[in-house]
Amino acid sequence: MEDQSIFVGQEFPDVKAFRNAIKEAAIAQHFELRIVKSDLIRYIAKCASEGCPWRIRAIKLPNAPTFTIRSLEGTHTCGKNAQNGHHQASVDWIVNFIEERLRDNINYKPKDILHDIYKQYGITIPYKQAWRAKERGLQAIYGSSEEGYCLLPAYCEQIKKTNPGSHAEVFTAGSDSRFQRFFISFYASLHGFLNGCLPVICLGGIQLKSKYLGTLLTATSFDGDGGVFPLAFGVVDEENDDSWMWFLLELRKALEMSTEKIPPLTFLSDGQKSIADAVKRKFPSSCHAICMQYLSESISSDFKNSRLVQLLWKAAYSTSTRGFKEKMAEIEEVSSDAATWLQQYPPSHWALIHFDGTRYGHFSSNIYEFNKWILEARELPIIQVIKRIHCKLTEEFELRRSRSSTWSSTLSPSAEKRIMDGRTHASTYQVLRSDEVEFEVISAERSDIVNTGTRSCSCRDWQLYRIPCSHAVAALTSYKKDVYAFTDKYFTAASYRECYSKEVHPIPDKLEWSRTRLVRPPKFRRPPGRPEKKRLCVEDLNLNREKHTVHCSKCNQTGHYKTTCKTEVVQSTQQF
Predict the structure, then answer these.
(1) What's the average model confidence in pLDDT over 478-496?
(2) pLDDT tens across 381-391, in order?
């Protein structure tokens, strides 16, 4: 950075450009400035080190905003050692330094700011100063959190105007119109879900990290190729029973607005009571399953045993009551505590053999995948989080619509692959026909009964995935039946294309919005500083552990150490 040199006669567009240049030079060359005079027509400064003769004088040229350096006296004798906490490296200067980096990477961390400034300028700055600069930089680029809440009503109106049929509402609380909840479901998503997606809805929430916090509640589905399909989302000031009840009520309204009859649905979630109660109340005829990824991660976290995780998945996939009981017995043998823990989740919500609904092969929620869309934007104002989702939806709909237009297969690629794998295995099977719809399929390992009338197989794969298993493929092809005709419509290429047939239209810039009503941010704010970590008391984790008794090596009594022993003090007092 020694290239940041200045010389007599050098000109600058205006006084601001000159001040920035002299500041850059001071930081780059590691000396502190002491300003003697600074106004709109002149600038005089010297080196802040005592005894250093370096001095600079600049003035404004007549009839022009241009600033020029008139004199530059002396050379530095101070050693240029201003490297720690340089006074010229203000928050505003750091903001200018990191602005472009912040645009490219929202999660540009304060420690990375410190590293980059030291690497480029050789100076160190306080962590707090870097953190403040990042906060101010994000606000300069994306607006303030307060403005984000204020713009929500106008943004909802723009959504409904540019994407007719969408459901978008802002809800406030109190006489001062404090933000409480926000819900949105684009028409393209509603149409795609009702006309092409699997009738499966995944529910979940992710914490936001902006100034006023909040939780993003989401409802997603699966397309016929297994991709995540965002259906609706909302932001609430606090995640609780009421907020989930409200979210599912709005979701039901949005679906009823787009169809006369809501199809039978299966919900997937982490099983928390708030979600379970809301699903039961707002979608009483639906089935509710617990996400197996959540369940397996929970048992792994609590019991630190990979064998338990393997047995849990095997129990979930068991196709017979006997097989399920055997796996549960093995879990009991490995850890009775884990078996007791698992009892809080009824098998009817996660085990294949006991589940009444249809999951189309999806044992786990795709909420985790959707959360990746906005993971980087969680620190931004609420309006920016919503814009990120809108932009991502627009991109994904266009990408998948374009990609599927080139497909020549009857089914989506993943479903087509499943059928082809089934054909490969079916070529080695023997098929015996019982009647018009029932077949016995014999393989080297086992014998399975296939019923084409009920679309079922004793291996249960056909019922689980709703795509003919290898035994069903063998039975259907042996009597020249069309395998594709026995595959659920959701897996066809036509249904996939229908998912993304409607466009997510762009929304004009906020300069074109008309403010409809004022929405204030919620009263709760993120506390200043780094969040406290919850530390567990060792004694709480070891309730049955015998407490250690301390002994004094001086008096051999219990309850204190040698350094706090008062025996000598007592003896001295008695002698006195």
Answers:
(1) 94
(2) 999 999 999 99
DSSP string covering 217-277, please?
EEEEEE-TTS-EEEEEEEEESS-SHHHHHHHHHHHHHHHHHH-SSPPP-EEEE---HHHHH
Q: What is the pLDDT of residues 432-442, one digit of tens each?
A: 998 889 999 99
> Is pLDDT above 90 for 559?
no
Half-sphere exposure of 234 (CA within 13 A, CB side): 27
Averaged pLDDT for residues 322-326: 93
- Cβ pair 177, 521 in contact under 8 A: no
Contacts of residue 365, defined as CB under 8 A and 6 or more positions apart, other chains included, come to 202, 203, 204, 220, 268, 269, 270, 291, 293, 294
Residue tagged 């997510």 (tokens): 504
Rg (CA), the chain: 34
What average pLDDT score do residues 238-260 get?
A: 94
10: its two tokens: 């050098």
- In sequence order, the 6+-apart residues with CB closer than 8 A to the CB of 295 are 271, 312, 345, 350
- Tell me the average pLDDT of the chain: 88
Specify the pLDDT at position 530: 55
Task: Report the amino acid identity of residue 385.
Answer: V
What pLDDT is stored for residue 294 in this prediction? 93
- The letter for the amino acid at 255 is L
Q: Which helix (H) or strand (E) holds 34?
A: strand 33-38
Query: How far is residue 162's CA from residue 170's CA, in Å, rounded to a whole number?
Result: 17
Question: What CA–CA distance (Å, rounded) separates 47 from 381?
Answer: 42
Give the Cβ contact number of residue 252 at 10 Å. 14
State the pLDDT at residue 537: 38
> How distant, in Å, are the alpha carbons of 57, 68, 291 from that of 13?
16, 9, 62
Which are the contacts of 59, defined by CB distance < 8 A and separation ≥ 6?
Answer: 41, 42, 43, 67, 68, 70
Running DSSP on this structure, what letter comes out for residue 439?
E
d(CA 202, CA 367): 6
* 3-class secondary structure, 461: helix
Q: How far is CA 298 from the centre of its chain?
A: 19
Give the CB-side neighbour count of residue 476, counting CA atoms within 13 A.
24
Of 163, 143, 107, 204, the closest CA to residue 382 belongs to 143
Residue tagged 């794998």 (tokens): 421
Q: What whole-number distance in Å separates Cα of residue 447 and Cα of residue 458? A: 9
What is the chain's percent helix, strand, coil content, to nearest 5? 45, 15, 40
Q: Residue 103 CB: number of other CB atoms within 10 A? A: 13
Categorize the per-residue pLDDT at 544 as very low, low, confident or very high, splitting at 50, 70 and 90: very low
The pLDDT of residue 527 is 59
pLDDT at 518 (0 to 100)? 84
Distance between start and end Cα atoms, the chain: 74
Q: Report d(CA 425, CA 523) in Å as an integer.
A: 62
pLDDT (0 to 100) of residue 549: 63
